[in-house]
Design a protein that fits this description.
The chain has 269 residues and is of the alpha/beta class. The chain has a single domain, classed as Alpha-Beta Barrel (TIM Barrel), CATH 3.20.20. It is built from ten helices and eight strands. It binds L-Erythrulose and manganese (II) ion (MN). Manganese (II) ion binds next to loops.
């Protein structure tokens, strides 16, 4: 399978074994570790030198699988379902910039994870409807720019809306199954929220546009209790042909990830 891994190219991030300012060395590590592509973590792409990023990717002959956008929620409080119209519009403006950045990087997917907002400030129904409205708007922009959006179900301890795989699927239905929006299936979240992980993958058949790989403790595959052979088989059976992208915490430390990431994901994928 095509493998990718997370790297922050702006600010430090617990899912990136290199500090943001060392992104060039980080890209070299991604390449040397045998990954086919990199998942770029950014907060505000408009503050980056796009030409420098393109140049380094070209020099390393490295593709970008995905742009990860959640850092803007964590660091800047952007949210697609915020009570404040200003914050919702700032989130959409940021996502348009992420999509424009993606166009310049060979059209990787753009992820909608935590940038949708953690929720819990307004009623569930109100937030759901604000999210639906925001998703429709950004979905139209993504379609115009020919960029796929990965909508990521995230576990209940991080956000209120779209925790299970099935709730993600139901949301796609509500959106009218747009061609440019799919599901990012993350094994860490699925292990917490789904009754049966392989069954969830079967139910998502044809809708998965990206996969995040982390074990039950958010460490490298094989260091927790998820059976990744079952995951691989379910993905293969469902005809999934996209990237499997490592998204693990720097545990027990960044050096461990630097040394083990490439071989760890290839053991299963
Ligand atoms: C982002 O991909 C993700 O999985 C979130 O849990 C980050 O907090
Ligand atoms: Mn994830």
């Amino acid at each position: 399978m095509k493998c990718s891994t997370s790297l922050s190219i702006q600010y430090d991030n617990s899912f990136s074994p290199f500090p943001g300012r060392e992104w060039v060395q980080g890209l070299q590590w991604v390449k040397d570790s045998g990954f086919d592509a990199v998942e770029i973590i950014v907060s505000d792409p408009e503050l980056l030198d796009w030409k420098a990023v393109q140049r380094e990717l070209g020099r390393q002959n490295l593709l970008v699988s995905t742009i990860s956008t959640g850092q803007a929620a964590v660091l800047e409080g952007l949210s697609m379902m915020a009570a404040s119209r200003e914050i919702r519009e700032a989130a959409l403006k940021r996502l348009r910039a992420d999509i424009d950045f993606a166009v310049e990087l060979g059209r990787p997917h753009v992820t909608i994870g935590l940038i949708r907002g953690r929720g819990g400030s307004l009623s569930f129904e109100m937030e759901h409807s604000l999210l639906l409205d925001s998703m429709k708007k950004i979905g139209e922009y993504a379609a115009r720019k020919d960029i796929i959006l990965n909508l990521e179900p995230i576990n209940r301890y991080e956000c209120v809306h779209l925790n299970t795989s099935l709730s993600g699927l139901a949301f796609l239905e509500e959106l009218g199954r747009p061609e440019h929006v799919g599901i990012l299936y993350d094994t860490f979240h699925s292990n917490i929220e789904d009754v049966d992980m392989a069954e969830a993958i079967r139910q998502l058949k044809g809708h998965i546009t990206n996969v995040h790989i982390a074990d039950s403790n958010r460490q490298l595959p094989g260091e927790g209790h998820i059976d990744f052979c079952v995951i691989r088989e379910a993905l293969e059976e469902s005809g999934y042909e996209g990237y499997v992208a490592l998204e693990v915490l720097n545990r027990p430390g960044g050096q461990h990830i630097v040394e083990r990431a490439g071989t760890s994901i290839r053991e299963f994928f």
